[in-house]
Automatic annotation (TrEMBL):
One of its GO terms (molecular function) is FMN binding. Residues 322-584 form the FAD-binding FR-type domain. Keywords: FAD, Flavoprotein, FMN, NADP, Oxidoreductase. This is Uncharacterized protein. It comes from Podospora appendiculata.
Length: 764
């Protein structure tokens, strides 16, 4: 039996260390679902006395797999059948050609669980691709793969998936894995699994800092700063070397290409994620727009009651995020009318650079990561509820006390990776404002752990009931459906007092949110001060009412909505992982067929501005879909007078014009079309009489066909859901209508042939 310790009234059991009994759990996750599943797995394995390591795939090297008895992969699928971004490095290493035929993973015993949505054509492709590659390299699958599917008739609440659907596959898989581990990896005599009602030690500890700790923290920070400076210096040296081509005169296009490569090299985080062969990645997607933008429900659900609370905007302390840039907010303007259902912001930021050459002048497809913060009032509420008041403003330290490194606590007392705090001294209040997501919807494991922190038997019982795996929906009815936050859950259980040293283990960390940069070309570089670049974002705020009619805002939306002008903040800029959008003298000769809905216009605007610098650019057709001409037709005035650009807007909620009415009627009457009017198009989608982009696309079939014959760049940006497939369908129809191909099947092949067109999609 594991050794038990009494802590307050709690029993804590330390897993028994056994040589060779270890499990590595690697996840790939965009919004945290796969991460949560990986955490659940690690808890189960620790209870079976496995030493576990759990982290995102990119934190591991391939050789790390060899050091563990078992490896479990958990990955969601993102984009169009892609692996999540935090697997980039790992996945690229795994696919290296030189590994082919080496059987290099023959010693690895693995299993894999995928998270996906069967409404996507490439259902669970990430997990499938990963599994195939692991098997190719000789790894042995010790347990069957699992494929979670979040698509279900009742699987959506306010446009968000209800994880119960994933659970219906995940829970049996998890339980079967647990049984397999117990049977295949039996424990020695006298050691029993740690039962669910006994708590495990924390993975990461937090304590009040001693003066020695503080000295140590400050020393570490200044060493890290020195290392960062050195890295920058090295990056500049590399760039200078690339630039010195005096002996070989080069064309402007070659210089532009080099500049693209060089500029990529100025972001060390990016360098870490990419190998020199980045071109190989060209087929990859960039789908890093703010996932919170997903609102698929009817707008009346999102109308907000005015907030009564007095809010104090979070303090602008700069976090120690490696390689992040420093920016200042210039404008934060609502661009939709006050009575429109959605608050959309145009946010302009000045990014302050160390050197002017630190940013590329053409950046279509780039994204900005913004790190939202909690409001001080919310942090105070939690401090009061937990009774942390006396310690809330004292400096903290992580892990082992300086000078006690050899103590057994060291085993589990670490600083979590990617916890980017304020500079030392950092207090609990700082963590609650800048790092811990205390208004997230709680995960099952959070409720399960809470049961250890209350003395009230009725609370314990209720929390265990809510968090147990079972056939009923109680957990989801209590958490996801009403969008109940962690703070609200804690208010419902006043007996719960989380000890300060468990804070890092209990609360999820705030994630950065990505937004597409909406400007490009000359507009990005300010001429008056070359050390500053100006970027613009177009952000749809997530605001809605819960089923209890309570107004709700996403964490990042609340932060951005109130973001004051002139405030300073940290942000990351990520260049696109594809070279498809590079605009240079050559590529801009291609025609552009751009289709965007809503805030999906942001990266398209950047691309149009990038192309505007070139006189020899090909013609552009822009199809833009929104609800109302006077409410969300963003950048309408900008399109007037741009040579070679034709815009075809589709307003789905405005009365249709007579021409559109006639087209709608024609498309609605299937018989008209199938009775030989246009042969070879039996499968038109009619969109229930709505003026959507696909109607406008079909109306311009001849024009589109003309451009299709000249190797265009075709871009689709905006909502995921049905839009991308309906647009594709309409484009295929255009190929048939303009007689490039004779039927839909041929159109499909033609469209997917990269010799005919370059296709880029960014949907979320
Ligand atoms: C923009 C986007 C693209 C997606 N693409 C796919 C896909 O191609 N195939 C699939 O099976 N699931 C797809 N999904 C579903 C996700 O895999 C699923 O929502 C999963 O639970 C996300 O887990 P995560 O939070 O760990 O990333 C997509 C979801 C989003 C939001």
């Amino acid at each position: 039996m594991a050794e038990l310790h009494e802590v307050d009234h709690r029993e804590v059991a330390q897993p028994v260390m056994m040589e060779g009994r270890s499990m590595i759990i690697l996840y790939g996750s965009e919004t945290g679902n796969a991460q949560e599943i990986a955490t659940e797995l690690s808890i189960m394995a620790r209870r079976l006395h496995f030493q576990t390591v759990v982290d995102e795939m990119d934190s591991f090297k391939l050789t790390d797999l060899l050091a563990h008895q078992l490896a479990v992969f958990v990955t969601s699928t993102s984009g169009q059948g892609e692996l999540p971004k935090n697997t980039d490095k790992f996945w690229r290493n795994l696919r290296r050609q030189k590994l082919n035929g080496t059987n290099c993973l023959a010693k690895v015993n693995f299993s894999i669980f995928g998270l996906g949505d069967s409404s996507y054509p490439k259902f669970n492709w990430a997990a499938r691709k990963l599994r195939v590659r692991l098997l190719q390299l000789g790894a042995h699958e010790f347990f069957r793969p699992g494929e979670g599917d979040e698509r279900h008739d009742n699987g959506w609440v306010l446009g968000y998936p209800t994880p119960s659907v994933i659970d219906s596959i995940w829970v049996p898989w998890f339980q079967e894995l647990q049984d397999t581990l117990a049977a295949e990896c039996p424990l020695p005599d006298g050691v029993r699994p740690i039962p669910d009602d006994v708590q495990l030690p924390p993975r990461y500890t937090l304590r009040l800092a001693t003066p020695m700790d503080l000295d140590h923290q400050m020393k570490m920070e200044s060493e890290e700063e020195a290392r960062a400076l050195e890295r920058k210096f090295q990056a500049t040296k590399t760039k200078s070397a690339v630039q010195s081509h005096v002996d070989h005169p080069r064309s402007k296009d070659m210089d532009l290409e080099d500049m693209w490569e060089r500029n990529k090299a100025t972001f060390p985080a990016d360098i870490a994620r990419r190998s020199a062969a980045w071109e190989n990645q060209n087929h990859r997607r960039v789908d890093s727009l703010d996932k919170d933008n997903i609102i698929t429900d009817h707008p009346h659900k999102y109308l907000l009651e005015p907030r009564s609370e007095n809010q104090t905007f979070p303090p602008p302390d700069m976090l120690n995020i490696p390689h992040a840039l420093h920016a200042q907010v210039l404008h934060n303007i609502r661009v939709t009318p006050a009575d429109h259902w959605q608050d959309v912001r145009k946010i302009s930021l000045d990014v302050l650079l160390d050197r002017p050459e630190d940013f590329p002048s053409c950046a279509a497809g780039s994204t900005v990561t913004i790190y939202p913060k909690n409001y001080p009032e919310d942090a105070q509420k939690l401090i009061d509820m937990m009774g942390w008041g006396p310690d809330a403003d004292k400096p903290l330290a992580w892990g082992v006390a300086v000078g006690k490194e050899d103590s057994p606590e060291q085993l589990h007392a670490m600083r979590p990776p990617r916890l980017y705090t304020k500079k030392a001294p950092c207090t609990l209040r700082d963590l609650l404002i800048h790092n811990l997501d205390i208004t997230a919807i709680p995960k099952r494991n959070f409720l399960r752990e809470l049961a250890f922190f209350t003395r009230e038997e009725n609370e314990k019982e209720r929390l265990r009931q809510l968090s147990s795996f079972g056939p009923d929906q109680e957990f989801y009815d209590y958490t996801s459906r009403p969008r109940r936050t962690i703070l609200e859950v804690l208010r419902d259980f006043p007996g719960v007092k989380i000890p300060l040293d468990r804070a890092l283990d209990m609360f999820p960390f705030i994630r950065g949110r990505d937004f597409s940069i909406a400007n490009g070309g000359d507009s990005i570089r300010r001429t008056d001060d070359s050390y500053v670049i100006r970027i613009e974002l177009l952000v749809a705020l997530v605001e809605y009412k819960t089923i209890f009619k309570k107004p709700r805002e996403g964490l990042c939306s609340r932060y951005l909505k109130n973001l004051p002008e002139e405030i300073h903040l940290r942000l990351d800029i990520k260049l696109p992982t594809t070279g498809k959008l590079i605009t240079d003298g050559n590529s801009c000769r291609r025609p552009l067929i751009a289709i965007a809905t809503g805030t999906g216009i942001a990266p398209i605007r950047a691309l149009i501005q990038d192309r505007a610098r070139f006189f020899n650019r090909g013609p552009t057709l822009l199809f833009y879909g929104c609800r109302n001409e006077n409410a969300d037709y963003f950048f309408k005035k900008e399109w007037v007078g741009i040579p070679g650009l034709e815009v075809f807007p589709a307003f789905s909620r405005d009365p249709v014009s007579p021409g559109d009415q006639e087209a709608l009627e024609r498309y609605e009457n299937k018989l008209d079309m199938t009775n030989g009017a246009i042969p070879g198009l039996p499968g038109l989608q009619y969109d229930a009489g709505k003026n959507y982009v696909q109607l406008q696309i079909r109306k311009q079939a001849q024009k589109i066909g003309e451009l299709m014959r000249h190797n265009p760049l075709v871009c689709v940006c905006g909502n995921s859901g049905r839009m991308p497939s309906s647009v594709r369908d309409a484009l295929l129809d255009c190929l048939v209508i303009s007689k490039i191909v004779s039927n839909k099947e041929e159109a499909n092949h033609w469209f997917d042939n990269q010799r005919n067109l370059i296709f880029w999609q960014e949907t979320w």
